[in-house]
Amino acid sequence: MGVFKAAAVQMRSGESPERNAVDLERLVRDAAAQGATYIQTPEMTGALIRDKQARAASFTSEDKDIIVATARRLAGELGVFLHIGSTAILRADGKLANRALLFGPDGAVLATYDKIHMFDVDLDNGESWRESAAYEPGTEAVVTGVAGAKLGFAVCYDLRFPQLFRAEALAGADVLTVPAAFTRQTGEAHWHVLLRARAIENGAYVIAAAQGGLHEDGRETFGHSLIVDPWGRIIAEAAHDEPGVIVAEIDPAQSLAARKKIPNLKNARDFTVNTDGVDAPRLRGAAS
Fold it and tell me: 160: domain CATH number?
């Protein structure tokens, strides 16, 4: 397993996929110029649009999507693994998917992942979100090979469901990904601690490219893109909400070393939950 450079691209996507594609290209070229061979962009790279009608008018199928076309071209031209953290894709059944796509150095799609957990919450100060009203949740976790490492996929709100990351780690993932558009309110409270926790409890790198700042549709996201090593140390951070690029070296051997020191993946045991005689499922650590 070789060492490689990974980049997390921080964006402030607006409502126009065409304008966002221009920003995407500029930032990805910057990351490649810094030596990154794996480059990740945030959730909803293509556009952040709250209005339902405007959203319907802007998003299209994967074969017609400008972000997909731009990413395919850039990955092939620059010879990098380009991970579009997610973009909205119109499915054949007419529903939208919040979809991550990984392109290989030849420009081909290596893997896709549809966000499983929908952000349906009511926060303080009247902030409310119903992602399930716009998107169809995915049903399948994904792990795939990248530059000698195994990459596990997630998107934003998935971060709060540790069983997803544990399942991917048990499937061999030594790099976990969390491209996101965390709100400022939730990001200030939980972003750093949750990302570091997912790294520590799975002995894995975590790479999290984020949206940041005040967007055209009125939402405000936290920024602070992070790369965390398998011991939970932050090795790169965009300590702000402005667009930009962070880069760090990824050494998959460090994941193996962390798992040897703290072999919790191997030490997990089956157990049941005592619910006063009511039948309960058998569980295995956080993997169930």
Answer: 3.60.110.10
